[in-house]
Design brief:
Blueprint (H helix, E strand, L loop, with lengths): L2 E4 L2 E7 L1 H18 L6 E6 L3 H8 L7 E11 L2 E10 L9 E9 L3 H12 L4 E9 L13 E5 L5 E2 L15 E4 L2
Parallel strand pairs: 3-4, 3-6, 6-7, 7-8
Antiparallel strand pairs: 1-2, 2-10, 4-5, 9-10
Helix pairs in contact: 1-2
Bound molecules: guanosine-5'-monophosphate and magnesium ion.
């Protein structure tokens, strides 16, 4: 098992690159089946989801396009509970079937707020895929991901796009903070 130390914190490898690839393929299979013949618009929630989005998007087989939004709710190790829109939606979602691509759903505050925005902007439907999902921490029922790649416990993870204070996003595996 690989281990990384950053700023005095120790992180242990939890999900290997091979496991990640198979979880991503399983989500792609489900989305390909559910959206066959439709033209969904994927919206990546930056920054953390960019790596999952790139891996998932290339496995999608219907006509589809991708765009971005940047929302922020975490400072360091904890969710602030406030959701800030740092970079607004880059393409119109009016009448579109939107697939939100998220890195991780924790309290669900981010997705709860984003779904409200998408409804206001006239999206026809909204589904959420999240690479990771912490069911025991969910506070907003409507933020439960439709397509979670993997459920984890109440823990802090980094790597595969997820950061600790701007570091460790470039790890090819998911690592968990040692308690
Ligand atoms: P929520 O709004 O669901 O509470 O939090 C969602 C956002 O918080 C995620 O998109 C992610 O950016 C950040 N986040 C939540 N849990 C973790 C975690 O374990 N590790 C990291 N690096 N970010 C997290
Ligand atoms: Mg995120």
């Amino acid at each position: 098992m690989r281990t990384i130390t950053e700023k005095g914190l120790v992180f242990d490898e939890k999900i290997t690159p091979e496991q990640i690839a198979s979880y991503v393929q399983a989500v792609a299979d489900r989305i390909n089946a559910d959206y066959a013949g439709r033209e969904p618009l994927c919206v990546v929630v930056l920054t953390g989801a960019f790596m999952y989005a790139a891996d998932l998007f290339r496995r999608l087989q219907m006509h589809t396009d991708v765009t971005y939004i940047r929302l922020k709710s975490y400072e360091g190790l904890n969710s602030t509970g406030r959701v800030e829109c740092v970079v607004p939606l880059q393409k119109p979602v009016l009448g579109r079937d939107v697939i939100v691509i998220e890195d991780i759903v924790d309290s669900g505050a981010t997705i709860h707020e984003f779904k409200r925005m998408l409804a206001e902007e006239g999206a026809r439907s909204v589904a959420v895929t999240s690479f990771l999902y912490k069911p025991t921490k969910l506070l907003f029922e409507d933020a439960r991901p439709d397509y979670p790649a993997l459920e984890i416990g109440d823990e802090f993870v980094v790597g595969y796009g997820l950061d600790y204070q701007g570091y460790l996003r470039n790890l090819d595996a998911v690592y968990t903070l040692r308690k």
